[in-house]
Write a structure and sequence with these properties.
The complex is a heterodimer of chains A (87) and B (272).
Chain A: E1 3-5, E2 9-14, E3 17-22, E4 27-31, H1 33-43, H2 48-59, H3 63-79, E5 83-85
Antiparallel strand pairs in A: 1-5, 2-3, 3-4
Helix pairs in contact in A: 1-2, 2-3
Chain B: E1 15-21, E2 24-30, H1 33-43, E3 54-60, E4 71-75, E5 78-83, E6 86-90, E7 95-100, H2 104-121, E8 125-134, E9 137-142, H3 149-158, E10 162-165, E11 168-174, E12 177-181, E13 197-208, E14 213-216, H4 219-229, H5 237-253, E15 256-261
Parallel strand pairs in B: 2-3, 3-7, 9-13, 13-15
Antiparallel strand pairs in B: 1-2, 4-5, 5-6, 6-7, 8-9, 8-10, 8-11, 11-12, 12-13, 14-15
Helix pairs in contact in B: 4-5
The chains are: A alpha+beta (87), B alpha+beta (272).
Chain lengths: 87, 272
């Protein structure tokens, strides 16, 4: 399943981390290095499998681990209301 | 509060007042001289006119401060800012109308709302902070209520340093880096402030403590407090994106450190 970043969020990479601001809810979140890569993959419209492939190349982790990590994090983002499934 | 055009009164001249803060010029004109007198009394230290400034047609009208938080709506070349006791419509060509209760509190709330909007779009911020000048450079101390902005400012003033503001400071990029500008917005010290600008020497995350100490801080801590201390009533995503962009530039352009200070005396000033 593909996901996209919800409308109304502003984000930017600063000093190696991605900061996300939800102005309507007055909330800010920061993402660490791996999470930032996943977020930026979603922002670029890449499917989960392609993002996982990027992590495999970057961190030399097995495909199964990368896929599970990306899927788990995307699930967390969806639960936090930051991304939504693309129908 | 309904917005109405200023009623022209034959044979009666309009009163005017020009204000210049942080490089932004705002000119007000009204056929109700009482509200212009309020502006003069409150912002007289920042009197100034500049070509190309905003031109407000000002009308006095009663109103309550509820809702208290101003609402901002920007669309194309039209901006509306309002709360219970004021409503401003800024249109093309910097021509604008402001209907407001003739009180210092109301006009202050409008100016904070509008200038914070302009500063964000000029690459800067209006910041909840204390600001002081040392060795011709400005230092800002970020902190929300209770962080110690006013005690720090009073100790700095007692030590003979110039305080820019103990509550709201204005910062924007200049040709040689960020500069802090004189602020008419004050807290407990209730001073007038004065126009002027100083190169930004550094930004401190402020915390009251028993001992004075300066230490480093992580970018995430600095950015989080910077955005929390930024005055911004515009809830639009584009405004949040600007705040992030300006925050990144300020983090890159100024040294951010943490200051723990004791309000027992002004000895912490030696660490600045």
């Amino acid at each position: 399943m593909a996901y996209k970043i919800k409308k109304g969020l502003a984000f930017r990479r600063i000093a190696g981390e991605v900061y996300i601001v939800d102005a309507a809810r007055c909330e800010m979140r920061e993402l660490n290095g791996t999470a930032s890569l996943i977020w930026e993959g979603l922002a670029a419209g890449r499917p989960v499998a392609a993002i996982a492939a990027g992590l495999m190349a970057e961190f030399e982790v097995p495909e199964r681990t990368a896929l599970a990590d990306v899927a788990g994090f995307v699930k967390d983002l969806a639960a936090a209301g930051l991304v939504e499934a693309v129908k | 509060m309904a917005l109405r055009p200023v009623a022209r009164r034959p044979g009666r001249a309009a009163a005017g007042f020009g204000l210049k803060v942080a490089g932004q010029a705002l000119n007000f004109e009204s056929y109700q001289p009482g509200i212009i007198s309020v502006l003069r009394r409150r912002y007289g230290a920042f009197t100034g006119k500049a070509a190309g400034g905003y031109r407000f047609s000002l009308t006095a009208a009663p109103g309550s401060q509820s809702p208290f938080r101003p609402a901002v709506a920007a669309s194309g070349d039209r901006l509306e800012i309002g709360r219970g006791d004021f409503r401003a419509v800024i249109g093309p060509g910097r021509k604008a109308e402001l209907t407001a209760a003739p009180s210092e509190q109301t006009l202050d709330a409008f100016l904070r709302s509008f200038l914070s909007f302009l500063l964000l779009r000029a690459g800067g911020f209006m910041l909840h902070s204390a600001g002081l000048v040392k060795n011709d450079r400005a230092y800002l101390f970020l902190g929300k209520s209770g962080a110690g902005k006013s005690p720090l400012s009073k100790l700095a003033a007692a030590a003979g340093l110039e305080v820019i503001s103990d509550e709201i400071n204005l910062v924007r990029p200049g040709s040689n880096g960020f500069r802090a500008y004189g602020s008419p917005f004050w807290g407990e010290m209730r001073a007038d402030g004065r126009p002027g600008s100083w190169p930004l020497g550094g930004v401190f995350l402020l915390k009251k403590a028993r001992r004075n100490r300066v230490s480093g801080c992580k970018p995430v801590e600095a950015l989080r407090l910077l955005l929390r201390c930024a005055v911004n009533f515009d809830r639009a995503p584009a405004s949040a994106a600007l705040a992030l962009e300006n925050g990144a530039a300020l983090l890159a352009g100024a040294a951010f450190r943490r200051l723990e200070f004791s309000k027992a005396d002004g000895s912490f000033l030696e660490l600045i």
